[in-house]
Every structure is written in structure tokens, then in C-alpha cells.
Amino acid sequence: MFWPLSVYRLIHPKESYIWAQVRILHETDKTMLVGTDMKTWIPKSRIHRIRLRNNTFEIYVKESTVG
């Protein structure tokens, strides 16, 4: 049984994922150069989903990857 506020959860918080609006600038076999506020190379292994919404690409990644 896990308590909602256990010591384990304080030490190892749950990873949160977000949809981030990006502009794809360049793509290779393993990475993508995306532009949000600044240009960032993101490995394709860290991108979980990609969608096109209102003519804007959005990627589903861990919050720490983009932010």
C-alpha cells in the first residue's frame, strides 16, 4: 500500500509530460531541430507523439525536455 505523500514520492517525483508548440526547422535520422523561444535539438527517442493542430506542430515530451 502506498501513501499519497510517501518519502519515495518526495525523492522521486512523477515525470510530467506536456504538449509543446514547436516549429520544425531541421530533421535528421535521430534528432529534430525545433524552434520555440530558442532553437533546440531534441532526440526523436524523447518525442512520444507529434500532432498537427491548427496548422501548428505540437510534440508530446517530458516537461524538462522543452522547458
Helical residue percent band: 10-25%
Strand order of the largest sheet: 3-2-1-5-4
Oligomer: single chain
Show unreliable segments. none
Please report the total strand number as a whole number.
5
Class by helix and strand content? mainly beta
How would you describe this protein?
The chain is mainly beta and 67 residues long. It has one domain. The protein has helices spanning 7-11, 63-66; strands at residues 17-27, 31-35, 39-43, 49-53, 56-62. It has a five-stranded antiparallel β-sheet.
Features:
67 residues, elongated, 49% strand, five-stranded antiparallel beta sheet, mainly beta, 2 helices
What's the gist of this structure?
With 67 residues, the chain is mainly β. Helix content is 13%, strand content 49%.
